[in-house]
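Exercise 7.
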Amino acid sequence: MAESDWDTVTVLRKKGPTAAQAKSKQAITAAQRRGEDIETTKKWSAGQNKQHLVTKNTAKLDRETEELHHERVPLEVGKVIQQGRQEKGMTQKDLATKINEKPQVIADYESGKAIPNNQVMGKIERVIGRKLRGKDIGQPLEAKPKTK
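Solution. The predicted structure, written as tokens, is:
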């Protein structure tokens, strides 16, 4: 205990300036006076909401005249579905239940509002027994022999 000198103070580490203090105008000028190297970088679009920026392509898109939309099921196919369903004595809900779809899907197909999906069309074809795709829409569906 004789080695301990209670009057001597040893500073192990001095805290440097915080990030906000180091970036202040005062700190920068003090560093320049001392001759230290100062690195400045300009952050591009920092602190701005560039998410909704109007780009050069916006005008090009505005000038575009072609209407872009999804192809819908033709009304002819809707009529065939409706006729085939009524011949089998089924409601839209019955048909939807048989093909594991919602009744709204059948209503959309019959009214021509649906975007054609080959899986759904294939299921409907098998249940009502009529072709819905290709050239011969409305023709009876030929049962292909199962081969093992």
